[in-house]
Design brief:
- By secondary structure, the chain is α/β, with parallel strands linked by helices.
- The protein has one domain (about 5-220): P-loop containing nucleotide triphosphate hydrolases (Rossmann fold).
- The protein has nine helices and ten strands.
- The strands form three sheets. A six-stranded parallel sheet has the order 2-7-1-8-9-10, with helices on both faces. A two-stranded parallel sheet has the order 3-6.
- Helix 1 (about 20-30) packs parallel to helix 2 and helix 7 (about 155-170) packs parallel to helix 8.
- The radius of gyration is 16 Å and the shape is globular.
- The termini are close together.
């Protein structure tokens, strides 16, 4: 990656591996290098209404890490109340998730930003909506993929399977980031060595475990090209 792409689609080896923290850290890393960087979470379940419409904590974190800061409706075009898989949450809400509104919101954000960091849902093969895969999203937005690997037992298989699926779907794996989701994970460095050998993409660093993570500080741990 000799030049900065117009953004990345951030996916994970599973849900709960720190995609949002990684995406926010990536935004801060881009901003620290003088780039205008904004975040987006096209589909989010588990949204609540505090008086200003449905809002999702992860989408709000991405919005807060952005400069310029997009309107919430563009950050999160599909906000769903039920805290479950988006397909189920959308059905319960009577919502049909579709790519065109996501692409329109992305392009609106991209007009004011050098890079847009887009966070997906769950892992690579967790559909953002009925009939929509993350590969469809990556192709529609013309984005390479960053894989977030939660460092815990099982991560080697999950990471290799994810990388293989991304490649088979015709998408570019631009790099991967490790996250310290398990602070007591034994042999972490040995697993990192195996992952660096196994994954066909640049290693972007490890975000350490933190009960209350500060994405601006965590950004200093990222080495993902072209950073």
């Amino acid at each position: 990656m000799s030049t900065t792409p117009r953004g990345w689609l951030v996916t994970g080896t599973d849900t709960g591996v720190g995609k949002t923290v990684a995406a926010c850290a990536l935004l801060h890393a881009l901003r620290a290098r003088g780039l205008r960087a904004s975040g987006m979470k096209p589909v989010a379940s588990g949204c609540t209404d505090e008086g200003d419409g449905l809002r999702n904590a992860d989408a709000l974190a991405l919005q807060a890490a952005s400069d310029p800061r997009p309107a919430y409706a563009d950050v999160n075009p599909f906000a769903l109340p039920e805290p479950t898989a988006p397909q189920i949450a959308a059905r319960l809400a009577g919502v049909q998730i579709a790519l065109p509104p996501i692409v329109t919101a992305f392009e609106r954000i991209a007009r004011s930003a050098d890079c847009v960091v887009v966070e997906g849902v769950g892992g690579w093969l967790a559909p953002p909506g009925d009939g929509i895969e993350h590969a469809d999203l990556a192709h529609a937005l013309r984005l390479p993929v960053v894989l977030v690997v939660g460092l815990r037992l099982g991560c080697l298989s999950h990471a290799r399977l994810s990388a293989r699926a991304i490649a088979q779907d015709g998408c570019e794996l631009a790099g991967w980031i490790g996250t310290g989701v398990d602070p007591e994970f034994a042999h972490r460095d040995a697993y990192l060595h195996l992952l660096r050998d196994a994954l066909p993409a640049p290693y972007g660093g490890v975000l350490p475990h933190a009960p209350t993570p500060d994405p601006a500080k965590l950004a200093q741990a990222l080495t993902l090209p072209p950073l």
